[in-house]
Amino acid sequence: MEKDMNHVRRKKQGGMVTMPFIFANEACEKLAVVGFSTNMLSYLTTQLHMPLTKAANTLTNFGGTASLTPLLGAFIADSYAGRFWTITAASIIYQIGMISLTLSAVLPQLRPSPCKGDEICQQANGGQLTVLYASLLLTALGSGGIRPCVVAFGADQFDESDPKQNTKTWKYFNWYYFVMGVSILVAVTVIVYIQENVGWGWGLGIPAIAMLLSIIAFIVGYPLYRHLDPSGSPFTRLIQVAVAAYKKRKIRTVSDPKLLYQNDELDAPISLGGKLSHTEHMKFLDKAAVVSEEESMKDSKTPNLWRLNTVHRVEELKSVIRMGPIWAAGILLITAYAQQGTFSLQQAKTMDRHITKSFQIPAGSMSVFTIVTMLSTIAFYDRVFIRIARKITGLDRGITFLHRMGIGFVISILATLVAGFIERKRKNVALDHGLIDHSHAIIPISVFWLVPQYSLHGMAEAFMSIGHLEFFYDQAPESMRSTAMALFWTAISVGNYVSTLLVFLVHKYSAGPNGSNWLPDNNLNKGKLDYFYWLITLLQVLNLVYYLFCSKMYTFKPIQVHNESGSSEADGVLELQNRV
């Protein structure tokens, strides 16, 4: 009875009325982090006087760390605090980091002295870098609590057991990414313009103020939210299954899955959306659910979970393992995308960015073409593409998230392929005008030549990233959805770290005896950035082949469906495919 009352309470709360409060928090977080990270290369090279490759690696390391901390935030949310309180605490930590970052840009003693004439610029000292890195670490920790929880918390507001709401979850991811994209668009235009033309104090102070307002708005919406209680550490459950299976490794598996251990009361807190059915894959893990003679003689409602687990808990671990190869496939797309904030931005700084004689586009604002294309693609996908695809496939969402991700991979390959040809065009113009040796000279070629590579990356993200989000949320067990969202951000983290490693290796092993290098520190004109882009293209082609194999072999999460009479069916794969 108490469980039914809790269910009623959940249905009365949540829904579309909560979206403004939730989206406000995510939008301001993106405004803050993108407003800085998009133009961070300029800040590090012009204000702190870092060498180009060190600044590029600092940027990707920061992006990698900020995308790795969601694992910690998801663990706290799923295990102890719940998503609301995790988001609230993380937002406050993020706010402190933004205030510290703003002060580092405002106070002269926290930055090196400006360059004077032809003198060698003084780089930031240890103390100044400590303040910078501490501020970035606080924002990374704050992001770790916000990113995996906001997207899952928003999706939680739609009750999947309610026929009027269960189709809105997949639409929510399009809306979420659209709102995030609008926020990023404001960041790469208005905020970047303020940073370069008004000052870094205001350029960082405005996002800090916006973040404060979003925290207030998010907390005000508390009575309206649908809150799901934390159900214990998902990592502990996964480890328990693995340990139990190892301890019973010498036991024979049962021939009939119905003989495996079931305990509805034990699984109730972690299976509100339906229990997972048994699958035939990874049968060695089934040993964790085999009841031994010793255990069958015990009359206990709560077994020793380090020796005996339910089928549902075993299937949780199987689901996570099955998601692993698809997760890994997304890494190289992020590696390719990361170059927009490093070398693509450096390309833009060497090109003619004037729209009129008195106004030129800030180099950091070139990503506006990525965002506009991404937003346009999302709108086209939601309003046109899905309706056409639905008639062909019969699926409510048009195409599966696996197909959507595959399309994104193909477009990303085109993006880096095109980027290589555009870089060769830029260098040829520099050579024709005798500007190869001039690192700070503006080459007489329009910056709009870079629009195709920026736009293709935006189109790829609209397909791949949203498909990735859908995949993790849909295929993860209900009690692990914050953790699943953390896996999405972890792929971004690893992608940034792979970018750092790739830049390091190319910079080291492409160095020639005469000082030549594919990725030179000071003069991009003397490098071979086009080769670097084509290297990433080749890696992405190999990655696409890997992804096609993984998606072909992938088995969807099986859900045990409960009917009105209280009995259940194990036709979970068919049920999930209908939902997909």
TrEMBL record:
It holds the Pfam family PTR2. GO terms for molecular function: transmembrane transporter activity. It is found in: Membrane. The chain crosses the membrane at residues 59-77, 83-107, 175-194, 200-225, 320-339, 359-381, 401-422, 485-511, 531-549. It is a multi-pass membrane protein. Its main location: membrane. Keywords: Membrane, Transmembrane, Transmembrane helix. It comes from the Eukaryota. Belongs to the major facilitator superfamily. Proton-dependent oligopeptide transporter (POT/PTR) (TC 2.A.17) family. This is Protein NRT1/ PTR FAMILY 3.1. It comes from Quillaja saponaria.
